[in-house]
Amino acid sequence: MWRNSLQFLLNETRSNVNSKQITKHLRCITTSSLLSMFVQTQDTPNPNSLKFLPGVKVLEQGQTMDFPTGQSAFCSPLGKLLFRIEGVKGVFLGPDFITVTKIDDEIEWKLLKPEIFATIMDFFASGLPVLNDAVPNSDTQINEDDSEVVQMIKELLDTRIRPTVQEDGGDIIFMGYDDGIVKLKMQGSCSSCPSSIVTLKNGVQNMLQFYIPEIVAVEQVMEPHDTISDKEFEKLEMKIKLKDGETK
After folding, report:
1. Is the CATH number of domain 2-126 3.40.630.30?
2. Residues facing 185 on adjacent strands
3. Domain Scaffold protein Nfu/NifU N-terminal, which positions (predicted)?
């Protein structure tokens, strides 16, 4: 693994090894790694989330896994490795991509990307499984007791909505339907995206209502950690407003 070689080079640097030799060795290691795997990146609507495409299968087609916290990634060797990188807040796995969400705007992608690249390349070179005894999302699987409306909702989510959302590095999970209200959960880059509410109301809700008149509204289901994050954000926003008021 080339990261171990990098550590060797750093140790050699401390021993006053010729810097030109180190540069040459580093270039060879990097070139060799890129030849075996070329990881591309793709921007998402969320500036704090970036989509990484390793060029190999991550999960089975149509499957996704969301790890909003380090503790939730206990079942994924890849997820656990990515959470070891300082500044990583969330990891989302799709069929052929990995979405990484950073903590905030203060951490720059140019500092995070090299280590994420190295971690992804090292992991897929290791041959370890992406998941250990974990069951990916199967929320849109049609069940015998599903009503006709629920079946239509699941079909629309699978065929019309999810492909577009996954293209942006996230996913949308069906959580339930009751009295005309569709409950959905945003994952990956969409979970903390400033435009997620707009996406739900102007995009998803309008489409579902167009095909299914019985639907009254679409609501976003928030996890406890999402609620805490929102509260902390509100506190920070209040502090900034107070500070601005004092400086005027």
Report:
1. no
2. 173
3. 39-127
